[in-house]
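Encode chain A's predicted structure.
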Amino acid sequence: MPDNPIQPTPLRGTWWVEGRPDIEVAGTLTRVGEVWQLDVHGILPGGVMWTRGLSVTAPVQIHGRSGYKLATLRGAYLIAGNPSEHLGTKDGEDGWQTWRAPQFVRGANLEADSKLSAATFSLTRLESWWRASGITRGTTDYQSYQQPEPLTAAWGGAEIVLWNRLSISSGIRSNGVAEQPVVSVHSADGCTLDWLMESVVLPLEALLAACIHKPVTAYGFDLELADAGDWPDSAELNPGTSPDIDPSWAYDMPVLSAEQIDFPTFLPRWLDMAEAIPLVVASCSRSERDDPLQIAVVSALHTAETLERWLHQAEPSTELVEQVAALLESSELTGPQRKKILRAVSLSTQPSLERRLVHLGRGLGEEFHLWFLNGSLPEWASVAATVRNALSHGYPTAHRIERDIGALLGILYTVTAVTRLRMLVYAGLPNDFELVRLLVKDQRYLGLLHQNVADWKALAAKIRNPE
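Encoded structure for chain A:
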């Protein structure tokens, strides 16, 4: 989502790479598009450019000071500089560099292991997911405002609270209140900013995106430092870069809202899942058409397979492997050859993708797959698995369904829907009849229900008996 076109004021000061305060250079920080750009007069250590081969270097943390204001660029990488740095110019001497970074912290020199005691932020379309409000027709000023009860969950040693932040306007011609739903994370033992972003923020973005079917972005971060010493104990992440808020949020109808779940149990289960299989949960934040169609189909099926494997973590059967091992003992094969055969036998006992897709569908209840797939769960799983194998491995097929655009679209959208719903059911969304009762009110799922680009029974028959 694009940032607000009003750019933050340039920040001029002195800058140094974390761990190298002995080399300071002057520079100016500005906002360029969706990243932060630091132009410095001098050479900071850690950047590599103009090499004859490919140079891959880890991003660096750059600290800064402007008067009494501290700053940090997180994940900075060098994009341009004076070529003389490779012709004898030393760090800190004459020259220039341009660095860019996705994150800027105003108010602190944060190190990778710096601890936060609390953080508060908002999410686009959070108003759609949690509509609790203390503003009614009778609300005229602060005294008549009634704060709705916040939602609280405990996870990972932190307390996560969903609440409404209040702002008051008062003057000769105005006297009113406004509220904004926000999320606060409190950690008694302290947490790092990386942990906050990876373990809480990104999963929450994915949760809202899965419920609302639209991209969600976190913004407006206020950070409280656990041990700031003599410096202020608060800071801001990416200040002045609030995304454009789409006013159409008022018309969003989430398939699942905060009021429909048991927040204290649902959220921890969702976060547990995000910690165990982060790429699967993060897929909820992506549109089905972010990638070319064939790549998107393969990715969606890999995601579904990973989710099912995690949901049904069972010890594989060793009976067949043991029987084959006993037979191999009397063979003339070498040790490495025996291990290779046993590994192949062990892999053959793993459930197929087709079987895993059937398990995912059944995990949503019989009423669901009879309604959503029109009683074609086995055929749907067979077609999807066959197409994935053909696309992933380049298998030549006589049916050529992997080239059927309608079949690919049907697979992509239905597999994505089943995968996301199965994640929500794991966290606490009801399945079977209750799930269908929720989905019949959702225009997206109704649209998928009435899709006419893929007839699963006909496609399965074509795979069995290609013309």
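The two ends are 47 Å apart (CA to CA).
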